[in-house]
Request: fold
Amino acid sequence: MLDYTSVHELAARAAAENSTIGQLALADQAEQCETSPEALVRRMRHNLDVMREAARDGAVRDLRSTSGLTGGDAWRMREYLQRGGALCGPVGARAVAIALAVAEYNAAMGRIVAAPTAGSCGILPGAVLALLEQDLADPDAAVDGLFCAGAVGMVIANQASISGAEGGCQAECGSASAMAAAALVQMLGGSPAMVENAVAIAIKNQLGLVCDPVAGLVEVPCIKRNAGGVTNALTAADMALAGIRSVIPVDEVIGAMREVGESLPCALRETAQGGLAVTPTGKRLQEQLFGHNA
Reply:
């Protein structure tokens, strides 16, 4: 059985077995859960369907969160995309639109797939669904990519953290971005070694990202950080597929993320006591929503 403590070990074993990391994780999970691979694939296909539904329902023009702080930006991004000329191209702009939609749907209390958390739920769907919508991969590749992403997420959870309260937003959006980069590389036929380099690059690019939710809600700046996280995943995947390697090995990068998270002050770990949460506007919104004594 796999122990999910090293991305490099996952990649090396997949390469040795002429497999993908996703296939390796699927076989291992079937053994650990004492179920068939086919049953797990069906479950993952269901997760993919939920992602599609969230991307669709979160892109509605009049969608609003309960607080009223967010909603409608995914629709605006879709409209912008349809006009053409997006600076990050059709795949990038589509990924951003999907990431915004899923994150906004989460803020509006819709059903999402926590990947790995609710606060970072738009990043992995944004990456995977953008490739599907652009016919750059098929659903089978997407399912394989999601198993790969899950394996990477388990390593990060075991060796560092996926919790904003424990490690800052690098632990949520950073982990999700690394998972998405891994899925992208695998879906596009990259090698296991390319997957590990994509994970390392994605985490490095978001190392130290703080968690500072305005009014304590998973909306501002969380939703737009989902858009940033999926863009980072695309960039990391492109670099890895180009043959660019991370100078710092992936598992050392994950270890650094743990150390950085432990070093962050409490005010920057989901407490809404620092960063954007205590700007004049952030404090005004807190008071507007919850009153003077909040």
Observations:
- The first helix runs from residue 7 to 16.
- The mean pLDDT is 98.
- The chain has 13 helices and no strands.
